[in-house]
Amino acid sequence: MSEQKRRSQTRMVPVPSESIVPERDLGKPPVLETHHLGIEFGGLKAVDDFNLTIGRTEIAGLIGPNGAGKTTVFNLLTKVYEPTQGTVMINGRDTKGMNITQASQLGVARTFQNIRLFSQMTVEENVRIGLHNQIKYDMFTGILRLPRYWKQERKQHTEALELLSIFDMQDLADVKAGSLPYGAQRRLEIVRALATNPCLLLLDEPAAGMNPHETSELMENIAKIRDRFQIAILLIEHDMSLVMGVCEGICVLNFGKVIAKGTADEIQNNPVVIEAYLGKRKEG
Amino acid sequence: MMAFLSNLVNGISLGSIYAIIALGYTMVYGIAKMLNFAHGDVIMVGAYIAFCAAQYWGFPPVLALLVAMAVCTLLGVTIEKLAYAPLRQATSLAVLITAIGMSYLLQNLALLIWGANPKVFPDLIGLGSIALFDGQLVVKGATLVTIAANIVIMVALTLFTARTKMGKAMRCVSEDRGAAELMGIHVNGTISLTFAIGSFLAAIAGFLLCSSYPVLQPTTGSMPGIKAFTAAVFGGIGSIPGAMVGGVLLGVIEILGKAYISTELGDAIVFAVLIIVLLVRPTGLMGKATREKV
Amino acid sequence: MSVKQKKLIYNLVTIGLVAAAWLIFTLLLNHDAGVPRKERILSSSMKDQLIPICCWIVMAVSLNLVVGISGELSLGHAGFMSIGAFTGIVVSGWLLNGFAVEDATLRLVLAMVAGGLTAGIAGVLIGIPVLRLRGDYLAIVTLAFGEIIKNVLNCVYVAADGRHLNLGFINNNIAGTMLLNGPNGAKVKTIATVNAGFILVLITLVIVLNLINSRSGRAIMAVRDNRIAAESMGVPVTKYKMMAFVTAATLAGMAGALYGLNFATLLPTKFSFNESINVLVFVVLGGIGNILGSVISATALTILPEKLRFLQNYRMLVYAVVLIVVMLATNNRTIRAWFNTLSERLRPGKREEAKSHE
């Protein structure tokens, strides 16, 4: 397996503040840093003291039992929620007080656990929304159909098809997004997120509802995307074959707190992680 | 000072009428998730029935009111069964337009039956006026009856929804219709019951409205309907105490605004206050804020 | 046929239909102008309705931009029409009284531009607070603004004193020729023309259709379909909601100016909540988000009540029943299925097919 090979070649080294990044990203500034990140909902700490550093081209995993607070972390990183404690640094910039749109413009893109496509629009139009801040022209250019309109529209079209071809979806460009099969909808969400030209891609359970064949294909594609776009990917996933197969650094969350961080091998053999997933082993 | 007190009492009285109408809007919205624009016209029908019963058929006031209540209840349930129930799966906008159609229908039926000329509603409450503070403050009987009716209705409805089985079923349906159905609650019946209660209250509101403002014509229900709807949103739509508070506050603001700021701009003041409140509390005074799950 | 081609054909049909109607009515009006009353093809009531129909089409299409494309229920659209109407009347009257502009076309154009601008500015001012709210709360606030506009215009007095405009609020004691007279409305020198009406409809259609099929329009629809996803794609939500709202307000203002300059008297109470609702009925019956549908339903539903005049007092009753029945027929699954089978049975060719399926 090529993924496994890639994983075994990566040596994880410690960086300040007890974080780890792939060795190859060591010289470059990390794409994401969180310090003591936390949020409370009416006294309940959904996420508490969450520290994570992601290297420029790292594929990282965020795992943990149901209700551990994984999606909440995504919502904090994308500014759906404003954290009550700590900071989120994207590309070295503090995101305090930003809204979702501004976070996106900083280079964070995401997919959603419960798919959120623009279901009334076509597949191509969905990707074009992703290109919204990449290929621009203003309202009056659009209404008056100035030459720039035609030029930029053509550019959006080619770019959208190019992105769709990552998942061999260019033939579906004219299909209504809502009528796609489930797996294709998940893939379209990834394409749409990529269209925003992110430096950090957050995937919320990308393999949910996919069959084993689709999952292994997705695994290849995640690695391919990273190699091609040279971006960092953080993914939440319950399918351990995918997480262990493709993720370099893994962070385990339970009850809103980080209980372990490390490579796939380290996580698999960590007694605290095993306990969180399977419960305490009985003596004897 | 006495003038202010007098205005305040009149405001509370008008507000009580708004509150009783707003209850109909807010309960229907809570349960059926629809804006029942025809509600204001049910009030008008109620007032006409009471008028006819007292004036033409010579019924005593209490009996006239009871007849109006019976007719309105029947009317409300019929409207729901005929026009709204078939649209349970449709978009909310489709239901809204149907309700608007129903409102036109009721107004034009009234126009055909009773004509366009305004009727003068008789003083059916007939308590005369009460003079307080050596005659400095004169309060009309209708005003007091309206305020009293409002208090009684509020207490009764609160007890009904909190204590009785049917009231609990209504709360269940408003929270989650699907789950309520799975728990064995008869959803269609509960919705009908809600319309029945709302229309029953509409008859009372129509009777009280015309006792205080005795001009009765086919469009009588429109403006109080819109104001009461505003009151329901003001208090937080879907909330019963919200409708009460919203209604009374709106009435007081309207009367005081007309008395102390400008007669011509009375309505504008009411709506401006609504806008300001919604900007500060986007779901009304007592509405629950819902957070979309991501 | 690809989606793109379908959209292109749809747009061409929409604009072509209006252009064809313009051509036909121009020919008919030219024909009627030269012949005695008996030989005229257009009835005088039909002729009188042409300009209002154009105005209501613009109202319906622009409201559809807010309700259908941007997905926000607005119950105060007539308020913008009202602002446009009274601005247009004031501007036209001022130009005539203060500047002796005799050219009616110039006055009409300037009045419509002014009406559109003021309504657009009102759209920005109202949009800032309104668009922060969601769903039914947003709807009720647009209703409230519509009522406030009606109420405030009821108290405005404007008089032209030479080149000077005198304004009075509640106070009607101002010098000059009265242009706006508070609750008594305005006496208008009518200058609206059928050509202006059709041109306004065409401009509206080009603006709205081109907007929908552009980057901005897609952003507006994305916000409608899924607000959070659109934000996550870097689409500034408020900007695009505002764009739809203000564009619609501007168009409504222009329609208002044309409408206002078409009648000899106009009262502020004309643009009430009921008018907003009427426009909403056009939009819903024509199909949410369907621009061609709005054009057709606005036309049909403006003519229908006139055609029902023979029913006298039963006219609005019939209208109400038609409205309810159409809503039930188009939105209830059982009734729709029943209609489908009925139409299948009526088509002779399909009959055998339907039988063989059984």
Q: Mean pLDDT of chain A, as a whole number? A: 89
Radius of gyration of chain C, Cα only, in angstroms? 22 Å
The oligomeric state of the chains shown is heterotrimer
Name of the CATH class of the largest domain in chain A: Alpha Beta
Instruction: Note the total helix count of chain A.
Output: 11
Structural class of chain A: alpha/beta
Helix content of chain A: 25-40%
The percent range for strand residues of chain A is: 15-25%
How would you describe this structure to a colleague?
- Chain A is α/β, with parallel strands linked by helices.
- Chain A folds into two domains: 2-107 and 198-278, Rossmann fold; 118-181.
- In chain A, 38% of the residues lie in helices and 24% in strands.
- Chain A is built from eleven helices and twelve strands.
- A six-stranded mixed β-sheet of chain A has the order 8-9-10-5-11-12, with helices on both faces. Chain A has a four-stranded antiparallel β-sheet with strand order 4-3-6-7, covered by helices on one side. A two-stranded antiparallel ribbon of chain A has the order 1-2.
- The mean pLDDT of chain A is 89.
- With 294 residues, chain B is mainly α.
- Helix content of chain B is 72%, strand content 4%.
- Chain B has helices spanning 2-32, 39-55, 61-84, 92-114, 141-163, 165-175, 177-182, 187-212, 222-235, 240-260, 266-280; strands at residues 119-120, 129-132, 137-140, 215-216.
- The longest helix of chain B has 31 residues, at 2-32.
- The termini of chain B are far apart.
- The model of chain B has no long low-confidence stretch (mean pLDDT 89).
- Chain C has 358 residues and is mostly helical.
- Helices cover 72% and strands 6% of the residues of chain C.
- Chain C has 14 helices and five strands.
- Chain C is globular, with a radius of gyration of 22 Å.
- Chains in contact: A-C, B-C.
- Chains B and C meet through helix 4, helix 9 and helix 11 of B and helix 5, helix 10, helix 12 and helix 13 of C.
